[in-house]
Amino acid sequence: MYLKQFEHGRTFISKLNYNTDLLEELNRICQDENIKAGAISVIGAVSSLKLGFYDQITKEYIHTTYAYDEPMEIVSCIGNISLKDGKPFCHVHLTAADRKGRCIGGHLVNGTAIFAAEVVIQELLGEDLIRKNDEQTGLSLWKE
């Protein structure tokens, strides 16, 4: 088990710009503000959605498992921030609903266009939270 304790740092809120890429915007905020560890939540809607899925057998991300070019409501969007290759990195999962309430979820990848998005980022202070390759899973996980 991996357990670290952090103190609360700054809290950021942001209304993201229309028709920009959701993941790129989250990463840009974290890089601009030098947020090395934290938690992210987003509410709003997207005009197109791209989500990935990690294949546990092949140990590869399928980056466009789910691609929808239609308006969708963000039902849940949470993530965390850590350092990967020395830069702030947002790891985010998103669930969205179509106009009939059908939901799809997965790993947020580049290519999701924002219709409207309000973000809360809670910075965590303490030892740097660093990602490195985990041989057992093939994922880039927090270093122990």
Structural description of this entry:
- With about 140 residues, the chain is mainly beta.
- The protein has one domain (about 5-125): 60s Ribosomal Protein L30, Chain: A (2-Layer Sandwich).
- The protein is about 10% helix and about 60% strand.
- The protein has 1 helix and 9 strands, in the order βαββββββββ.
- It has one helix spanning about 20-30, and strands spanning about 5-15, 40-55, 60-70, 70-85, 85-95, 105-110, 115-125, 130-135, 140.
- Strands 1, 2, 3, 4, 5, 6 and 7 form a 7-stranded antiparallel beta sheet that branches. Strands 8-9 form a two-stranded antiparallel sheet.
- Strand 4 and strand 5 form a beta hairpin.
- The longest helix is centred in the first third of the chain and has 11 residues, at about 20-30.
- The N and C termini lie close together (about 10 Å).
What CATH calls the topology is 60s Ribosomal Protein L30, Chain: A
The main pleated sheet reads as: 7 strands, antiparallel
- The count of domains is 1
Classification by helices and strands? mainly beta
How much helix, percentage-wise, in residues? under 10%
State the low-pLDDT regions, or none. Answer: none
Question: Span from first to last CA?
Answer: 9 Å
Write the element-wise H/E pattern from the N-terminal end onward.
EHEEEEEEEE
Global geometry: globular
Radius of gyration: 15 Å
Q: Count the strands?
A: 9
Strand content: over 45%
User: Which CATH architecture?
Assistant: 2-Layer Sandwich
CATH first level: which class? Alpha Beta
Number of helices: 1
- On the 0 to 100 scale, the average pLDDT is 95
